[in-house]
Amino acid sequence: MSENNTLPNDFTVGYYLSDSKINKLKWNLFVDMCKEKYNINVVPIDMNKDISSINTRPYHVIIDKLTDELGDLDNPSNKQKVDYIQSLIDKFPSIVEVDPLESQKPVLSRDTLTKLLDKLNDVSPELNIKNPKFVLVPEDYNNNDYNQLLKEANIKFPVVCKTIKACGSKESHYMGIVFNEKDIHQFKQPMLIQEFINHNAIIYKVFAIGDFIQVVHRKSIRNMNVNETELIKFDSQKPFPASLLPTDGQELKIEIPSKSTLSVISKDIQKNLDISLFGFDVIVDCETKKIAVVDINYFPTFSGVDDFYTLLIEHIINVYKRKSSFIKSNNVLNK
User: CA-CA distance, 225 to 222, in Å (whole number)?
Assistant: First the structure.
């Protein structure tokens, strides 16, 4: 257990997570551990309480995941939740946010994320990173032929087609593997068209909690043949259809990228997005052996991370100490 004797006696962490997130994380076990081992209170943010009636800071730290809500602010309930958290921070600026709302927003758009990941291609060649080529098709693109766009981006079939919106709706998880220009028209603009990289049906899920990272591997989409023609549609949140799975007996070769390379990628994501709780998906090109980062997820379930609850509360404590010191320093300078 960490040294937390510098924390206030009534140290309180307020949280907002969806019900499904709470269930997947078995959050009640985390709440109990924090109280029993650290004497830290972890309590849900009461969004029914009138902020004007709150006279003292209710939480020292706030931890939340509001990506789905931020992705659909036309929904009054979502807007109310986002506005409540922001109003709470505005009224009590000494509350420390583990990952601010503003930092969660870029994760909503594949436009932003893809451009960020593309910059990883410029880091040291020794890291052997080469992210997929892509083209962003705007909503008002009116050319009936996508071949020119693909040619300009030097992208060959097969490709992956995805919505620009990365979360906040069911449609954001629908995508397809496409083998010809005609089938691209089955997807709505705006969209992301990305080259498909054969990776021997293995994906490496990297989980980051501050400076800590852990890698687990999972079965992924099978290798595609350039001679295939049939469009394959799927929902990335559901089990893959049989047409995407590797054949029985196919040997899955595990080639976990070096931890030093993954740490560089993790720090680059943290620096550019200002988030500290996230996961990113990595594949290894089966021909070139280059590493490609194909997705970033904010505050995933961290399934497979050893001692997750301890890592999380230690991270929350460290963020509080660092950011609260910064807030105090600013207050002194502004006097």
Answer: 10
Q: For Cα atoms 34, 39, 42, give the angle at the middle one, nearest 5 degrees.
A: 45
- Helix, strand, coil percent values for the chain (each to nearest 5): 35, 20, 40
Are the C-beta atoms of residues 176 and 160 closer than 8 Å to each other?
Answer: yes
Token pair listed for 5: 């004797």
Q: Which two tokens stand for residue 88?
A: 């709470």
- pTM for this predicted structure: 0.92
Query: Which of 107, 303, 121, 124 lies closest to 214 in space, CA to CA?
Result: 303
Cα angle, residue 218 at apex, residues 217 and 223 outer, rounded to 5°: 110
Residue 285, both tokens: 């090109």
Measured between alpha carbons, how far is 315 from 74 in angstroms, rounded to an integer? Answer: 33
Closest of 89, 84, 110, 112 to residue 99, by C-alpha: 89
Per-residue pLDDT of the chain (335 residues; tens, 9 = 90+): 444 568 999 999 999 999 999 999 999 999 999 999 999 999 999 999 999 999 999 999 999 999 999 999 999 999 999 999 999 999 999 999 999 999 999 999 999 999 988 988 888 888 899 999 999 999 998 877 899 999 999 999 999 999 998 876 778 889 999 999 999 999 999 999 999 999 999 999 999 999 999 999 999 999 999 899 999 999 988 888 888 988 765 667 888 999 999 999 999 999 999 999 999 999 999 999 999 999 999 999 999 999 999 999 999 999 999 998 766 655 544 44
Q: How many other CB atoms are there within 10 angstroms of residue 5's CB atom?
A: 6
The DSSP annotation for 92-107 comes to -TTSEESS-HHHHGGG
Phi-psi region of 289 (alpha: psi -120 to 50; beta: other; left: phi over 0): left
Asked if 317 contacts 7 with a C-beta cutoff of 8 angstroms, the reply is yes
Amino acid letter for position 126: E
β-partners of residue 207 are: 214, 279
Q: Which of 330, 278, 316 is nearest to 4 (CA)?
A: 316
**DSSP string of 49-99, one letter each residue:** S-GGG--S---SEEEE--HHHHTTTTSHHHHHHHHHHHHHHHH-TTSEESS
